[in-house]
Specification:
There is one protein chain. The chain has about 180 residues and is an all-beta fold. The protein has one domain (about 1-185): Methylamine Dehydrogenase, Chain H (7 Propeller), CATH 2.130.10.10. The chain contains no helices and 17 strands. It has a 4-stranded antiparallel sheet with strand order 4-5-6-7, with no helix packed on it. A 4-stranded antiparallel sheet has the order 8-9-10-11, with no helix packed on it. This is DMXL2 protein.
């Protein structure tokens, strides 16, 4: 799966030089993040205008429409994570009201699908990591802060400054004992 500054999203197969599907043509907002769900049957694309779109991967048309698309953040959606069987999605980004990390239910109509919005990261959340074993979300912000959320209780557990500049990467070890952060500096 490839995404570009011009907003195009294309899917390729290892053994074929031509694209299999063009999910999104050029001329849209820049792609900020893309993932497949754990089952591999859906892909999601976040963009610079705050939207998240989700497609079924097994498409037969060359230019399919997303089965879900909604604006998660008022300025930008920088990252997201599929939670559980991909009916629950977490997003990070920047919103005018500082609700910069959100939980969404994709099975509910788009007007009511926001489950919870965390007010955090004054200038926006840049990255997000889901820890399924502990049911935690870890987010990094533009000012170097890390927030850890318990998604069951829907509360912030910890906040601390890890860097002097924006957190650009988060990685979680498979046993969920440690996580690593990387920053712009």
């Amino acid at each position: 799966l490839t995404g570009a500054q011009d907003g195009s999203v294309r899917m390729f197969e290892w053994t074929r030089p031509q694209q299999l599907v063009c999910f999104q043509q050029a001329g849209n907002a820049r792609v900020t993040r893309m993932y497949f769900n754990s089952q591999g049957n859906k892909c999601g694309v976040a963009d610079g205008e705050g939207f998240l779109s989700i497609w079924q991967v097994n498409q037969t048309t060359s230019n399919p429409k997303p089965y879900l698309s909604w604006q998660c953040h008022s300025k930008t959606t920088s990252d997201f994570a599929f939670i559980t069987s991909s009916s629950l999605v977490a997003t990070s980004g920047q919103s005018n009201d500082n609700r910069n990390v959100c939980l969404w239910d994709t099975l509910v109509s788009s007007g009511n699908n926001l489950i919870h919005a965390f007010t955090c990261h004054d200038h926006g959340a840049t990255v997000l990591q889901y820890a399924p074993k502990h049911q935690l979300l870890i987010s990094g912000g533009r000012k170097g802060y890390i927030c850890i959320f318990d998604i069951r209780q829907r509360q912030v557990l910890y906040t601390f400054q890890a860097h002097e500049s924006a957190v650009k990467a988060l990685a979680l070890d498979p046993s969920e004992d440690y996580f690593v952060t990387g920053s712009a500096e």
